[in-house]
Specification:
Order of helices and strands: HHHHHHHHHHHHHHHHHHHHH
Helix content: over 70%
Largest sheet: none
Structural class: mainly alpha
Radius of gyration: 20 Å
Number of helices: 21
Number of strands: 0
């Protein structure tokens, strides 16, 4: 009953014609909050050598500041997502933006690796409600056949924040130091909160509807995960998140060791990761709406696998920069489509999108953690192991998502 066909959607369109015509501008505004969250999440990737020198420890120890943030974010999405059903989307977004900004500001004043790891954990916990609440809001506002477009914009900001965090983070740090980088991100977070507050009624409506039901959220999670379709989709969300986060978290070190780049040049090399999503996110979402998720998802997974396997072969610097951009394109061809599928699992949007965000950001944290644990075998071999694993997953996805038309 979940698989959408043109005939069914034609009937549905009559009931959602107004929603289908809603402007995409509010999506861009809300996605800014996720952009800055991802920016902060990955801006430390090229800073690992600098931070290890300043704190007097090795790169491997400092690298745990990445999974600390992402795991805290991932686990607490399950808390915030259903709360947004109960208390409203705006309240959760506002609370998380303020908390995120506060802990980001405090991180600028740490004087050791363990302090930074702890504050990054708290920052991830504080920000955890932004992405799932935005996805829930998109599923409230846009019908399924338009949802790919909106989610393409959203995940374009996810990829863009990831890339610009790593690239701009390195650039700013080379000019003014990493402490001012954290201060600046905290200020930007508060500015985005102010913009959303000003446009609250335009985005969320005059009077936001909240759920009156007090259903047990654990029963809602159990109901969703009882279906094979949901379990398969969430597995791919987790695995794809692990793959992209693990690879990206060590790309700064990859360029540092293999090409001798400094912090400034590492930032420029990583800049290409977010460009496809920011420029093509909406277009890729519309392509999936038109041609079917069963065709686009395997394409994105195969692209990710091949780019990482090629990266491990140490081609020229220019070729590696192009491969980084193609890796980002692989993300943009897969993750927004997983999110669109997940929004059909239950009428309780907060529960369904909460599980999606939980598996996504848990995957982000686990991926960077696993690669940090196995990197002693050599970064190239670790990349090859990730690439082969994704290649197997891509082959299986042809069967798993064959009915997602």
């Amino acid at each position: 009953m979940y698989y959408q066909t043109k005939k069914r959607m034609n009937g549905l369109n009559k009931g959602v014609s107004t929603a289908a015509q809603v402007s995409m501008l509010p999506v861009y505004m809300l996605s800014l909050a996720t952009f800055v969250v991802m920016f902060q999440g990955f801006m430390v990737a090229p800073l690992l050598p600098t931070l290890s020198e300043q704190f007097g420890t090795n790169v491997r120890h400092v690298s745990f500041i990445e999974p600390a943030y992402l795991l805290g974010y991932g686990f607490f999405t399950l808390v915030y997502a259903p709360l947004s059903d109960r208390f409203g989307r705006f309240r959760i977004v506002a609370f998380c933006l303020i908390t995120f900004s506060l802990f980001t500001l405090l991180t600028a004043f740490v004087d050791g690796t363990n302090q930074m790891i702890f504050l990054r954990l708290l920052t991830g916990i504080g920000a955890a409600g932004i992405a799932p609440t935005t996805i829930s809001w998109i599923s409230d506002t846009y019908p399924y056949e338009k949802r790919g477009h909106a989610l393409g914009i959203f995940f374009g900001n996810v990829a863009g924040g990831t890339a610009f965090g790593a690239s701009t983070g390195g650039l700013i740090t080379s000019l003014i130091g990493w402490q001012w980088l954290f201060v600046g991100v905290a200020i930007i977070g508060l500015i985005i909160f102010a913009l959303i507050l000003i446009k609250q009624k335009n985005i969320f409506g005059q009077r936001e509807t909240v759920a009156k039901s007090r259903d047990n959220i654990l029963l809602s999670f159990r109901s969703i995960l009882s279906t094979r379709r949901a379990r398969r989709t969430y597995f791919y969300v987790l695995f794809n998140g692990m793959f992209h986060s693990g690879i990206f978290a060590w790309l700064g070190y990859f360029f540092y060791t293999n090409y001798g780049l400094n912090q400034l040049h590492i930032g420029l090399a990583l800049l290409g990761y977010g460009i496809p999503g920011l420029l093509l996110g909406a277009l890729l979402g519309r392509l999936a709406d038109h041609y079917g998720r069963n065709k686009i998802i395997p394409l994105g997974l195969f692209l990710g696998a091949f780019t990482v396997l090629l990266l491990s072969q140490h081609f020229s610097l220019a070729a590696s920069c192009v491969l980084v951009a193609l890796l980002s394109l692989g993300f943009d061809l897969s993750h927004p489509l997983f999110a669109a599928i997940a929004t059909t699992f239950s009428s309780k949007k907060g529960a369904a999108t909460g599980l999606f965000a939980f598996f996504l950001f848990s995957g982000y944290g686990l991926g960077s953690l696993i690669l940090s644990l196995i990197v002693n075998i050599g970064l190239d071999r670790a990349y090859q192991l990730f690439g082969v694993s994704m290649l197997v997953a891509a082959l299986c996805s042809i069967f798993v998502f064959r009915k997602e038309k």
